[in-house]
Amino acid sequence: MSTRPLGWVLLLLVALPAAQAGEPGTAGPGQLRIVTNYWADVYVDGKRKGRAPTPPISLPAGKHVVELRGNPRVKDYRIEVVIKAGERLEVVAESTPVN
Fold first, then answer.
1. Where does the signal sequence lie (predicted)?
2. d(CA 32, CA 30)
């Protein structure tokens, strides 16, 4: 059996509280942080947000489409995430080189 690289593989989604309950900042936007082992351009809802790995990106609460693309050595990656107000969501994605 032959094994072929599959591209991006989602390893972990972690939701962390951005602030303790009752402290300022617990309502409103949340944060998204992308961690990868290869560089990739990060797009959220079709808008470029920088290059992964990224510092936390502030986003309004709700559903968002996150794409990692632009690196010719790995396949593009797409995931839908739900950001909750006051939380930090961390997406850890490991890529597999494309031959």
1. 1-21
2. 7
- For 41-89, the pLDDT digits (tens) are 999 999 999 999 889 999 999 999 999 999 999 989 999 999 999 999 9
pLDDT digits (tens, 9 = 90+) for 10-44: 444 555 554 443 344 446 899 999 999 889 999 99
The DSSP bridge pattern shows strands 77-83 and 87-95 to be unpaired
CA distance 90 to 25: 18
**Cα–Cα distance, 45 to 41 (Å, whole number):** 13
Residue 96 pairs with which residues in a beta bridge? none
* Domains recognised in the chain with CATH numbers: 8-95 (2.60.40)
For every residue of 12-44, DSSP letters joined together read: EEEEEESS-TTSTTSSS-EEEEEEESS-EEEEE
